[in-house]
Every structure is written in C-alpha cells, then in structure tokens.
TrEMBL record:
Main localization of the protein described in the UniProt heading: cytoplasm
Keyword line: Cytoplasm, Signal
Organism placement in taxonomy: Eukaryota, Metazoa, Chordata, Craniata, Vertebrata
UniProt GO MF annotations: actin filament binding; integrin binding
Recorded name of the encoding gene: Tln2_1
Presence of the UniProt keyword Nucleus in the record: no
Signal peptide (UniProt feature, chain positions): 1-18
Keyword Signal: yes
Highest rank taxon of the organism: Eukaryota
A single GO BP: actin cytoskeleton organization
Name of protein: TLN2 protein
GO terms for cellular component: cytoplasm; focal adhesion; plasma membrane
Length: 159
C-alpha cells in the first residue's frame, strides 16, 4: 500500500499544477483512479492482517475516506475541464487536492500503527541475535583459555 500512497501526492501536485492547463486533468484523474484501485486492494489485505483488530478497522476506514476524497478531486477536475476559466472551481480543486494529501498521511499513519507489532518482533529478534553472538564470543574465548579464572576451575567444568 505504501508504494501507491507515495504516488498519489505526485498526482495531486500535478493536478493542482494543471489548474492552468485543464486538458491534462483527465489523464491525471485516470491514473490516480488506477493507483487508488491498487491501494484499496492492498489496503484491504493490510486491514485483514492487522493486529489488533482496531488497527485493521482504522486502515479500512482511512482508505475509504481517501477514496471519497479522490472522488471529489476527480469531480472537481472534470468540472474544471468543462469550465477552465472558473476561478471558484480552480480553488475547489486545489482545496480537494490538499484534503486528499491529508488523507494520504492519515492512511500512512494507520499503516505504520499496524506495523508496530512487526517492528517490535524484528527489534526483539535483533536483540536476541546480538545476545547469542555475545555468548558465542564469550564461549570461544573461554574455551581458548584467554579469560582469567577467579579460581583454579576451568571453563570445561562449568560448560
């Protein structure tokens, strides 16, 4: 989902830039619609696998809200194509693009919240790997006899 999310703001920027060139809006709206379709599919899978269930609900809700924002943006782009000189429609298009950009950031934050458990497991696994490596190193030095014993016992006695 993140890949699609990264593309959407580019299209919003291009849309707001295309206010001066409305004939480009149709192609941009079509591309944004395709990208949102991919995001919706991936978002559905991310929501289904998210733990806890609240995070999945949040992902699903925010992706839907983004979809509604995209619909309004495409509608405003169409309205501007019909009447390219209407300054009110131009402002509305820019405002819709801003709102959609905010919704993209909300989707990203929901996806990151759903990823916290995975990241915690990766961090814990990394810490455990570090401890195991330290123990292996200590065992290697102890076996070689390079560690100083406090009494006359050998490492083999304690291993």
């Amino acid at each position: 989902p993140v890949n699609c999310l990264l593309l959407l703001p580019v299209f919003f920027f291009q849309m707001t830039k295309s206010v001066t060139n409305p004939e480009e809006l149709g192609g941009l709206a079509s591309q944004m619609t395709n990208d949102y379709g991919h995001l919706a599919l991936q978002g559905r899978m991310a929501a289904a696998t998210a733990e806890p269930e609240e995070i999945g609900f949040q992902i699903r809700t925010r992706v839907q809200e983004l979809g509604h924002g995209c619909i309004f943006l495409v509608q405003k782009a169409g309205a501007l194509q019909i009447c390219p000189t209407d300054s009110y429609t131009k402002r509305e298009l820019i405002e819709c693009a801003r709102a959609v950009t905010e919704k993209v950031s909300l989707v990203l934050s929901a996806l990151q919240a759903g990823n916290k458990g995975t990241q915690a497991c990766i961090t814990a696994a990394s810490a455990v790997s570090g401890i195991i490596a330290d123990l292996d190193t200590t065992i290697m030095f102890a076996t070689a006899g390079t560690l100083n014993a406090e009494n006359n016992e050998s490492f083999a006695d304690h291993r």
